[in-house]
Amino acid sequence: MELFVSDMDVSVGFYRDVLGFAVERRTEDYASLRRGLVVLGLGPIAKLPEHGDGPGFTGQRLSAGKGAGVEIVLELDTVDELRALYAHCQELQVVGEPLQLRSWGLHDFRLADPDGYYLRITHGDAAAPTA
């Protein structure tokens, strides 16, 4: 997955320092980050063409709302890992919605990155204890 961002340094810092991604590669125009099996690319909006006729991204298209209608789900291995990341995000005051047990049996919390991309952080163990 690749996200187009307003400020590369701010976005790299958010995904690295808040969500625990490791920077694998970084240039002025691109960053590749990894957390477990998830690889995330970040590219600067400023390098996109302003207008275009095709379905690709342009500055004009992204000015209407980055990530509108998209929920990015980061699935962690365990509920304990999820709780630890939630506590870290609380300390940094970046949580948008609190950690909750959902009706489908998984815990999650939600937040937005610096560009407003909507993130749901959850775990893959539906049999985890609810306490």
From TrEMBL:
- Pfam families xref list: Glyoxalase (PF00903)
Give the VOC domain ranges. Answer: 1-124
- Kindly list any coiled-coil regions of this protein: none
This one is known as: VOC domain-containing protein
